Amino acid sequence: MHSQSVPVGLEDDSVRSAVLQAATAPLDEVFDDRVRLEVDQLNRVGPWVFLKGTMHGSDSGRPYYAGTVFEARRADGVMSDVYAVLLRSKESIVDNDARGWHVADYVIGPTDVAWLVWPDKHEAPRSVLGI
Questions:
Q1: Strand order in 35-45's β-sheet?
Q2: Does some domain include residue 1?
Q3: In CATH, what number is assigned to the domain containing residue 34?
Q4: Residue partners of 18: CB distance under 8 A and separation at least 6
Q5: How much is the pTM?
Q6: Among 130, 122, 52, which Cα is nearest to 88's?
Q7: Of 82, 119, 126, which Cα lies nearest the Cα of 104?
Q8: How confident is the model over 61-111, as pLDDT tens digits?
Q9: How many domains, in total, are found in the chain?
């Protein structure tokens, strides 16, 4: 994982690590260890976290989609290397525990800005998306 800056509320390495672990769980389920994520945007507003990043293959090239549900989309040219996820913290578990973060929504390889509807859909602040 890589990030260019540390957002407010995620300065603590243990919290940041827990957020990244929870945020990348959907990628791990689909791709195992064949995809790594370069974090481009990571914002926290209260109990909400938004992460957007670029997927790379384990060799730092394009992700390897063979054998996944995304293989046909990539072959048809309708698959980007973008990954975005919206998380919400669970009040009963501390921030530095990955189990304390719930994936509210995510998108793998969108060709549009699919996450723009998430604030309305999940009653999350628009500012968590940086808009």
A1: 35-45, 48-57, 82-89, 101-108
A2: no
A3: 3.10.450.630
A4: 95, 96, 97, 98, 100, 101
A5: 0.85
A6: 122
A7: 119
A8: 888 888 888 888 888 988 999 999 999 998 756 666 777 899 999 999 999
A9: 1
